[in-house]
């Protein structure tokens, strides 16, 4: 497997992501190297979610951590406790998740939205206008409205 060169938690540490998640009522659980990540939908190094906890290893991509955390954040609090591995089948929630992860990237030192969007493209996120940046700038009005209606943006 050819793994894209993206920022990983080992590159930025766990403290800032843990503090960011805590500000939003979520917990970050560090998983030992090589151990399976609980609640990971995709497996391998991808972050996992169970209830209000996000699970990740040092090799977990930052975009994956933010994406899974944002899946929880776009849900009403009463639905979060029921989440295990797969947060939603809703296109609206998926789009809002992608938008919010980009916004939250600015709150992580050494990350920022430009790097996160580049990593999303490198990892294979797919948007109908071709790139994460173009989607965010030109095609994400509904995602932003979704977040604004819930006080998340």
Describe this structure in words.
The protein is mainly alpha-helical and 153 residues long. Strand 2 and strand 3 (53-56) form a beta hairpin. A 3-stranded mixed sheet has the order 1-3-2. Helix 3 (62-74) packs across helix 5. It has 8 helices and 3 strands, in the order ααβββαααααα. The mean pLDDT is 94. The longest helix is centred in the middle third of the chain and has 15 residues, at 91-105. The chain has helices at residues 9-12, 15-23, 62-74, 77-80, 91-105, 112-123, 132-138, 141-149, and strands at residues 27-30, 48-50, 53-56. It is globular and about 40 Å long.
Beta-strand content estimate: 5-15%
Distance between the termini: 36 Å
The pLDDT mean sits at 94
Structural class: mainly alpha
Count of DSSP-assigned helices: 8
Global outline: globular
Uncertain parts: none
Order of helices and strands: HHEEEHHHHHH
Query: Compute the gyration radius: what is it?
Result: 14 Å
**What's the main sheet like?**
3 strands, mixed
Strands side by side in the biggest sheet: 1-3-2
Percent range for helical residues? 40-55%
Q: How many strands? A: 3
Please specify the SSE layout and strand pairing.
Elements: H1 9-12, H2 15-23, E1 27-30, E2 48-50, E3 53-56, H3 62-74, H4 77-80, H5 91-105, H6 112-123, H7 132-138, H8 141-149
Parallel strand pairs: 1-3
Antiparallel strand pairs: 2-3
């Amino acid at each position: 497997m050819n793994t894209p060169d993206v920022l990983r938690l080992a590159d930025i540490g766990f403290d800032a992501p843990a503090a960011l998640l805590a500000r939003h009522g979520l917990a970050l659980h560090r998983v030992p190297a090589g151990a399976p990540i609980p609640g990971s939908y995709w497996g391998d190094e991808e972050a996992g979610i169970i209830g209000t906890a996000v699970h990740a290893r040092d090799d977990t991509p930052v975009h994956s951590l933010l994406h899974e955390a944002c899946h929880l954040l776009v849900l009403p609090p009463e639905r979060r406790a029921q989440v295990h591995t797969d947060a939603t089948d809703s296109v609206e929630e998926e789009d809002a998740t992608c938008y919010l992860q980009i916004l939250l990237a600015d709150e992580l030192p050494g990350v920022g939205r430009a790097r996160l969007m580049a990593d999303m493209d490198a990892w294979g996120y797919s948007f109908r206008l071709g790139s994460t940046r173009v989607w965010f700038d030109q095609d994400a009005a509904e995602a932003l409205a979704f977040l604004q209606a819930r006080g998340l943006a």
